[in-house]
Amino acid sequence: MKRILIVDDDTSVLRFVSKALADYESVVAHDGSEALLVAAGMPSLDLLITDYLMPSIQGDELIGRLRAVRPDLKVLIMTGHGDIFDEENLPWWANEVHLSKPFGLEALRNAVQQLLGPA
User: Which residue, among 62, 59, 72, has the nearest Cα to 115 in the 3D structure?
Assistant: First the structure.
C-alpha cells in the first residue's frame, strides 16, 4: 500500500484529505517540524502532501529537507496562494504538482493518482 504524509496546520484540511484518501496508508502532521519527526520514523514514504504556508517550517523548506534524505519523494502542494506563486514564476512551484485551496474531492484524487497511480 502506498504511504502518504499529509501536512497542514488546519485540522479540517487534514481530516478532509486523509478521509478522501482512505484507500492509501496516510499519516498526518500539523506543521513542518512535526512532519520531519514523523517522516524520520517512516521506513518508506511515497508521497508528501503539504500546505505551503505553515508555522515553523514552510512547504518549500519541508520539501527540500525531506528530499535531501528521500530524493525521489513525490510531492503535492496545497495552498491558497497559488496565484502569487504563478505570478512570481518560482522554479520550485512550477516543477511540483499543486492544488489551489479550496479544492474538491475529485481534484485531490486526480492529483494523487497522477503522482502515485491507483490505490
Answer: 72
